[in-house]
Amino acid sequence: MEKVHFLPVVLALLVVLVLNSVDARAVSSVNYLGRTTWTGTITDDSDNPANIGDTFTLTGGISRVGDEFYLFQGYVTLPDDGPFIMSGSGALIGSTLYLTISESQKHTDSAWRDSGVMHVSLDKATMNGNFFDIALSFNSTTRMFDQGFTAGTLSRTGATVPLSTTLAPQQLLLREEEDR
Description:
- The chain has 180 residues and is α+β, with helices and mostly antiparallel strands.
- It has a single domain (28-174), classed as Lipocalin (Beta Barrel), CATH 2.40.128.
- Helix content is 17%, strand content 51%.
- The protein has three helices and eight strands, in the order H-H-E-E-E-E-E-E-E-E-H.
- Strands 1-2-3-4-5-6-7-8 form an eight-stranded antiparallel β-barrel.
- The longest helix is centred in the first third of the chain and has 15 residues, at 6-20.
């Protein structure tokens, strides 16, 4: 008859027990608030002043992490070129949502690869605002770098995303859990 090794079995059961007792607040803290679109209008471009007045459509989703903290995921698609993929975070301070967004793009018609950091300020009530972007580009063929600055306005054209959502139902459920 073989010996049964109880220590590995006990440790495995403890791991399962710990994994099943994760605090519900930690798992459910991020709330997806919604998706919307903005029309961006360029008002300043250090590389090409001819771009001033051009527009683009920004599509994005906003999530609330908790308290005044938010996440953003989005993209800009351009005809005949690769999409800008965007991701960032921010805070609602007063009536303004401030976001810092990282972005990248791989051009489909050239060896240029773009990255940048965008600062966005949005009014809580209208979701309209402005942005500035500091970009760094690299040409993988010539091994050349380029940098630039762009600024402009953002006008919401899609659905309103309510930044203040009540967590009361969730908090009541958590209190009920704690009382047990």
